[in-house]
Each structure stands twice: as structure tokens, then as C-alpha cells.
């Protein structure tokens, strides 16, 4: 039952992450400008009058507030709350059944603390008006929850044995590949939270140049408001371009390193299936990124790109766990 609960929570977390990305991409993050309710009410239905006044004040439904966007935002909060309860149940079970499970409950406890931090970041995302660093941390926290749940789920499974020599030789490269993926996801989150996905609408060049005019200093200032510099001036287009261009360079590095690592895995009989899955996930993610640029950021493709990042991260976690278990079996 514990194994089933953890796997259910893992799938549920993936849904929460994808829905969260959809809410952000649909510009519904401020559909309800307070937290945890919506204009002080439990549901947008009960806050219809307040939402109607806000829509009138912003001059129509084209802004961040509308009844539809309020429901999107609150739906994400509802299912995120359900995830918190699931993680709480996993943590309590891990402590009560630690002898039968024969494993430390500390990972489950860390997950619970992470979800509590996620709740705080979710609140600050709204109350601090989508400050990019907070929204990016909220995205990374969701993916970290997914990755840790994947590790916890794998602890409940019996995986095919990996030779210790294979594990010891490739594990450092697997850890580096995981770090490369995490760094690229962070860059992608910074692109998304700064609305820089369409800063360059041509590909592979950007503004018909390999090195367009860019402002890295303001683009990568962490402590600032959305669309503003730390000094309070409007963020220039050169700064947005710098954010987008850096993510493209990161994508190239990820493709070369992680792709090369995947090809190495396919040459090992024990790791061939892992390498094939990793290569497919990586190439699909690159294709989705290019499609976002050339297609003008269609919402389904943009949401799929976020889902692809989650799948790529989970794939790297599985590979690292396989090497980890291979080394433990030697000891």
C-alpha cells in the first residue's frame, strides 16, 4: 500500500506541475489576487461580483483577471492542496511503518518540508505579483518534489541489477548530466517567468544574428519586479533577448552533453534501454522548444514543453538511481 501511495503521488505531482505551467502560460497566475481564497471566498463562483468589478476596472477580460482565469488558478490551488495531503500521508506512514519498510523516513519528511515551502512560494507568487525569482523557485520546487518522489518510488521497486564496474565508471557522468538538466530547467523557468519565450521569433538565429544585442546585467538581476529592473526602470528588450538567447545556448549544451551521454548508455547492454528513453525524451524536448519559437508559443505546445522538462528530469533521476543501487549492491 505504501508503494502504491507513493506511485500515485508521483503521477499526481506530474499533473500538478503541468497544470501549474498551464496556469502560468495562460496568464492566469493573478486570476485570484489573494491567497488562499479568491477575493476572500472559497471559490470563484462565490466571488463573481468582485471578479466582475476587477474585469471592469482593467477594461475587459484581456487582462490577468477574468472568471475563467480565476477558476484555472483556483483549480491549481485545489489540486496542490491535495498533493500536500498525499505527502503528509506518505510521511506519517513512513514513520509508523519504518520497521516493516526497512528504510529511513527522512526522505519522506524532507518531501513534506519541501511541500510546505512550496505552499509558501505559491502564496508569495500571488501576493508579490509574480516576482520572477519567486515564480521560478516555485517551478523548481514543484520539479524537485517530482524528482524526490521518483527516488522514493524507486526505493520501493526491484530494478534490474547493474554491474558495479558499469555503475562506478558512468555514475559521475550521470550526476553531471543531471546537473546540466537542472540548470537548463532553471534557465527555462527564468525565460517563462520573464515572458521571454518569444524574445527571438526566428531560429536558429535570434533577430537574424548569432549574437544579437543583449543586456545580461539587467536580464539576470534576480531581485526585481516583473518587467522592471532592480532600479525600477522598465526592463529593456535587450535584457529579455539575453534571457532567451542564454536558454538557447543552454539547450545546445544540454543536447550535446546529455545526448552524448545517452549514446554512451546505448552501447552498454545493461543500460541500453535507459539510453534510448533518455535520447527520445531529449530530442522530443528540443523539438518542442523549436516548435514554440516557430509556432508563436501555442499554449498546448508550451505546456507540453514544460511536461517534457519534467519527463527529462525524471529520466535522469531513474538513471542516477540505477547507478546508485548498482554501487550499493557491490558494497
The gyration radius over C-alpha positions equals 21 Å
Give the helices and strands as they follow along the chain.
HHHHHHHHHHH
Number of strands: 0
- Roughly how many Å apart are the termini? 29 Å
Oligomer: single chain
State the helix count.
11
Please indicate the percent range of residues in DSSP E strands (runs of 2 or more).
Answer: under 5%
Secondary structure topology:
Blueprint: H1 2-25, H2 48-58, H3 67-96, H4 98-101, H5 106-127, H6 132-155, H7 164-193, H8 216-219, H9 237-266, H10 272-295, H11 299-330
What are the main properties of this structure?
331 residues; mainly alpha; 2 domains
Can you describe this structure?
With 331 residues, the protein is mainly alpha-helical. The chain has 2 domains: 157 residues, no CATH class; 171 residues, no CATH class. 71% of the residues lie in helices and 0% in strands. It is globular.
Amino acid at each position: 500500500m505504501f508503494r502504491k501511495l507513493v506511485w500515485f503521488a508521483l503521477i499526481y505531482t506530474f499533473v500538478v506541475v503541468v497544470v501549474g505551467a498551464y496556469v502560468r502560460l495562460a496568464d492566469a497566475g493573478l486570476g485570484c489576487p489573494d491567497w488562499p481564497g479568491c477575493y476572500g471566498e472559497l471559490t470563484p463562483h462565490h466571488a463573481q461580483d468582485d471578479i466582475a468589478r476587477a474585469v471592469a476596472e482593467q477594461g475587459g477580460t484581456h487582462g490577468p483577471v477574468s472568471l475563467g482565469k480565476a477558476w484555472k488558478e483556483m483549480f491549481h490551488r485545489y489540486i496542490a492542496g491535495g498533493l500536500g495531503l498525499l505527502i503528509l500521508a506518505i510521511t506519517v506512514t513512513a514513520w509508523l511503518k519504518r520497521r516493516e519498510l526497512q528504510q529511513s523516513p527522512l526522505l519522506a519528511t524532507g518531501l513534506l518540508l519541501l511541500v510546505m515551502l512550496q505552499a509558501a512560494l505559491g502564496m508569495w507568487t500571488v501576493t508579490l505579483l509574480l516576482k520572477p525569482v519567486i515564480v521560478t523557485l516555485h517551478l523548481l520546487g514543484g520539479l524537485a518534489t517530482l524528482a524526490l518522489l521518483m527516488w522514493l518510488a524507486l526505493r520501493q521497486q526491484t530494478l534490474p541489477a547493474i554491474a558495479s564496474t558499469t555503475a562506478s565508471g558512468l555514475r559521475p557522468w550521470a550526476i553531471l548530466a543531471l546537473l546540466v538538466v537542472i540548470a537548463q530547467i532553471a534557465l527555462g523557468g527564468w525565460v517563462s517567468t520573464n515572458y521571454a519565450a518569444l524574445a527571438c521569433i526566428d531560429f536558429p538565429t535570434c533577430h537574424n544574428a548569432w549574437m544579437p544585442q543583449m543586456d545580461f546585467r539587467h536580464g539576470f538581476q534576480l531581485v526585481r519586479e516583473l518587467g522592471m529592473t532592480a532600479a525600477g526602470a522598465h526592463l529593456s528588450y535587450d535584457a529579455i533577448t539575453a534571457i532567451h538567447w542564454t536558454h538557447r545556448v543552454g539547450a545546445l549544451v544540454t543536447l550535446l552533453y546529455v545526448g552524448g551521454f545517452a549514446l554512451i548508455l546505448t552501447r552498454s547492454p545493461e543500460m541500453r534501454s535507459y539510453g534510448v528513453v533518455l535520447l527520445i525524451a531529449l530530442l522530443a524536448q528540443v523539438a518542442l522548444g523549436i516548435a514554440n519559437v516557430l509556432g508563436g508559443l501555442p499554449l498546448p505546445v508550451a505546456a507540453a514543453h514544460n511536461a517534457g522538462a519534467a519527463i527529462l528530469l525524471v529520466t535522469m533521476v531513474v538513471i542516477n538511481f540505477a547507478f546508485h543501487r548498482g554501487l550499493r549492491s557491490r558494497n
